[in-house]
Structures are given as structure tokens and as C-alpha cells.
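Morning, I've got a small favour to ask if you have a moment. I owe you a coffee for this, so here goes:

…
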Amino acid sequence: MRLTLTSQAADSENSGLANGEMNVVGPERAIRVDALHGVVRTWRADRFSHKNYVSRRALAAYLRRQRSPYAERFPPPSTDSSLLTVDDSTRAAALACLIARQRGHGVQFFVNPYQISTGEPYFFTMMDAYIDHRAVSCVSFAGSRYSLATPDDRRRLRATLKRCLRNLQPSDSLTEIHAIGRGIAGRLLAVPDHSAPVTLADLHALQDAGVSVQSHGWSHRSIDAMTTPEFEEHVLRARDWLRQELGAAPELYAVPFGDVDVPEQWRSLVVETTFLLDGSLPAGFRRPRCINRTDIAGMVRSR
């Protein structure tokens, strides 16, 4: 991948995540499963680095309004109960889990042990930071030109970068985004504090607070780029790490990026219930032991 730049100064954008009512597919009973990615102190619509987050205050208010608390475990004990899940091994995600626990709600925290054990941030958190701190007006990438002065082109660039980098090994995707980002921002950036990975000590503290820690796979690499041995390692290595470090094997597995189901020939490797997060599909059971979740970030922000 090669990035060429023309320089001029910079500018920002707006996003929100849609959500809807649960539409269960399959014979299983209706189970509402909600998803978030974390909280920031003050959410800004013009920041890509806030794209998947909500403000702390908004989450606290949303949780107070719930008629009944989110369930502690999956499956919830009744159709009146629902499940709250939080994805990715970031400080923002960990804080969302703690806010939920402090208000009497159960929460499932899906983590990637690779980020925790290496301390490396996710490539997409750095990608968002570089676009937010852009110092040029235009970039060319993968044969297309993007005007960073317009929100639509910034969104297009983000989507292209994510599509190109999500299939790489995590260290390779991070190296690539730093190389690309240096051209966008004119300098190397540190990971934003809210997007920094949690530590193992943080994870123990969350577990002590009653957070249920679950598997997001070893790393956040897209599973549709994996071979069978790679997927097996992705699932088993995460399971073994969580068992060794936290004393309990995960019961749930959330597919990285959430938009690709586990291929049929690999499903015997996944003993955990599989969770997706695909806004193009109805929420609910997609097949036995596979549930598509609802991203509630937009709902949380809007009330």
C-alpha cells in the first residue's frame, strides 16, 4: 500500500449508529442482546475517535431508565431480561463495564488477549486518531483520491483503510496505519488514552467487580482472512489464555468486526455461543447458538 499526499490544512465529521427492536430468527426464544464499545468523558460527533463510543453521562442515564437490570449471565433468565455486551480490550470499554456494574447491571466484556498481553493498540483506534488530527487537505490511497476537507470523503477513506487493514496480522496492520497516518497527520501519534488497551491487572479488577469476561478471539483480525489452522489458534489461544489468567474459560465468543459468521466447517471449534454485530441483518438468532446483537450507541446518545 502506498499513500501520496498533497498538503494544506485540515478540518471533521458526524456519525451515529443505528439500532432497532429485536427480530428473532430461528426457533430459540427471543433474547435481546445489546452492544456497546465504551465511553468517553465528553462525546463529540465530529471525532472519528469517538465514533463507536458514548459519553459516560449518557450511559449512566440510559442504564437508570431500564425497567429491569441487564442479566448477569447468558442466557438471561426470562424474556423480560436482556444482555449487555461491551467489545474490545480498551479503557473506554472497561469503564463502560464498571459504570454498568455500579448501577446494578450485568455486563459481558469481550476482550482480545493479544492487545492485553502486548500492550499494542488496535489499528482502527490509531486510524481514527490520525484522521482526526489530519494536517493535509487531500490524500491518495489505493488508486483513489480523498478530500479530507469533506466529511463524506473522510468517511470513505476510513472505510477503505479499514477494509484493507482488517485482514492483516495485528502487528502488520498497526505498522501500516502508523506509516499511512504519519502522512495524514504529519507525525506519529500516541494512542488516545480512552483507546489504550487494558492491562491484566485491570482485567482482574473488572472480574472482581462482577464483570463477566468473554472471548473476542486472540486478536481483532477478521476471521474471513484466516486459514483453518489460523482460526483454530484464534479461538483456542484466547480460550486458553482466559482460562489461565482469569481462572475460567469463556462461555461466549464475539466475532471480530461482527459482520462475518463462523463458516460451517469451523463451527465445531467454537464451543462458545457466537455473537455477531451486523447492522445489515435482523437482530436475534441467525442459527442455533449464534446471535446477532443490536448496537445501542445511537439510542444511548439520543436520550
Observations:
- The mean pLDDT is 91.
- The longest helix spans residues 228-246.
